[in-house]
Amino acid sequence: MAEKVLLIDDEVEFLEALSERMEIRGMEVTTAESASNAVDALGAGDYDAIVLDLQMPDMNGIEMLKLIRKSHPDLQVILLTGQATLEAGIQAMKLGAMDFMEKPADIDALTDKIKKAQAKKMVIVEKKTEKKVNDILKSKGW
After folding, report:
1. Structure confidence at residue 97 (pLDDT)
2. Exposed, middle or buried, 103 (CB in 10 Å: 0-12/13-18/19+)?
3. Are 119 and 99 in contact (CB under 8 A)?
4. pLDDT-based confidence at residue 142 (cuts at 50, 70, 90)
5. What is the pTM of this model?
6. Rounded-to-integer distance, Cα 78 and Cα 65, Å
7. What is the rounded CA–CA span in Å between residue 52 and residue 132?
8. How far apart are CA 140 and CA 142, in angstroms?
9. Which residues is 52 bridged to in the sheet?
10. Strand pairing report for 28-32 and 4-8
């Protein structure tokens, strides 16, 4: 099953190049070059992973991560940045980011992290489904 990825970055050339490289590896990629486009994409699609730029002009990655965690707590977010700092990495991980990588990201390492994100999301969905089934069985008294 192809991994569904939302790639958010304000650098259009980087976005297009990374998107193409990910699609060559069999992923379904949706791109957003601004925070507002990302919010629209989040409302319209279901993703296994989000690859998010830390520095964007309309909203930084930390603020976007907070918004994503609030509205889609099960989504796995990988932050990408060209200006990594230890503080930003720690803050991102505390807010629930799955990982934090520096640009230019090694495409094989990024692909591996996206596959792990998909697997993690599947486990979360299975646990939620199991809980729902158990709750229904208990409420019906079967």
Report:
1. 92
2. middle
3. no
4. low
5. 0.87
6. 9
7. 31
8. 6
9. 8, 79
10. parallel
In the numeric block, the tokens 């070059």 are attached to 33
36-62 residues labelled b (16+ CB within 10 A) or e (exposed): eebbebbeeeebbbbbbbbebeebbbb
pLDDT of 77 reads 95
Amino acid type, 78: I
Domains of the chain with bracketed CATH: 4-140 (3.40.50.2300)
d(CA 30, CA 8): 9
- Over residues 67-112, the pLDDT tens digits come to 999 999 889 999 998 876 788 888 888 999 999 898 888 999 999 9
pLDDT in tens, 26-77: 999 999 999 899 999 999 989 999 999 988 888 888 999 999 999 998 899 9
Tokens of residue 77, six digits: 């977010």
CB burial class (10 A; 0-12, 13-18, 19+) of residue 4?
middle
Beta bridge partners of 77: 50
CB 122 within 8 A of CB 49: no
Instruction: Give CA 116 to chain center in angstroms.
Output: 11
